[in-house]
């Protein structure tokens, strides 16, 4: 996808808006898949011990284990790309971006698992949180640094480097008059 940039940053706003819309659509799909009641004859017990569910999946054989573990990795993996896209920052530390995105993915996965405690037919599995978080991290590492580098190169080659927009905003914020310091009227202590 080629993004043309204008000096006023409209393309950055459109890119960010697209990220927000895609993020909301993905979250609605995830909510529907994970928090809808299921009509099942029986459910397994909740798994609260890390890696027990993954070991049980591996005991089922190669294809079934790959399918179940893959589902856990893929469910929230798009968040690894959509969260930074919705943030719309091009000039950010790669490690800070990864940490923020993985933390948000882990929190969302935890919230889904907690929400499943009250949904008939859904079973809480701590391994889902682990797999979802790893999926978010992998998607972020594979896509976001390369995409940001490509967009930054496009900014320099296009209508100019948009990094000045952040610097100008910061400069305006720093130079803006702050006004007078508010004063609080003192009330004497009654005898």
UniProtKB/TrEMBL annotation:
Region span, Disordered: 158-191
- Please note every region of biased composition (Basic and acidic residues): 164-176
Pfam families from the UniProt entry: VanZ (PF04892)
Q: Which InterPro entries match?
A: Teicoplanin_resist-assoc (IPR053150), VanZ-like (IPR006976)
Q: Which domain of life is it from?
A: Bacteria
Enumerate the spans annotated as VanZ-like domain: 24-143
Which residues span the membrane? 12-35, 129-146
Keywords, in A-Z order: Membrane, Transmembrane, Transmembrane helix
Sorted alphabetically, which PANTHER family does this protein's record hold? INTEGRAL MEMBRANE PROTEIN, MEMBRANE PROTEIN-RELATED
This chain's protein is named VanZ family protein
Q: State the species of origin.
A: Streptomyces halstedii
């Amino acid at each position: 996808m080629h993004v043309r940039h204008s000096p006023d940053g409209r393309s950055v706003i459109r890119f960010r808006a697209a990220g927000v819309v895609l993020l909301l659509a993905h979250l609605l799909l995830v909510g529907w898949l994970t928090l809808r009641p299921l009509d099942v004859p029986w459910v397994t017990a909740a798994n609260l011990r890390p890696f027990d569910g993954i070991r049980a999946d591996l005991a089922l054989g190669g294809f079934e284990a790959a399918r179940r573990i893959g589902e856990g990795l893929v469910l929230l993996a798009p968040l690894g790309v959509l969260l930074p896209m919705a943030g719309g920052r091009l000039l950010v530390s790669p490690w800070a971006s990864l940490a923020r995105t993985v933390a948000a993915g882990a929190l969302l996965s935890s919230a889904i698992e907690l929400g499943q405690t009250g949904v008939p037919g859904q079973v809480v599995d701590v391994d889902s949180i682990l797999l979802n978080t790893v999926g978010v991290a992998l998607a972020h590492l594979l896509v976001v640094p390369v995409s940001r580098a490509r967009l930054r190169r496009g900014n320099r080659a296009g209508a100019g480097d948009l990094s000045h927009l952040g610097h100008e905003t910061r400069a305006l914020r720093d130079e803006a008059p702050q006004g007078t310091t508010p004063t609080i009227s003192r009330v004497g202590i009654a005898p």
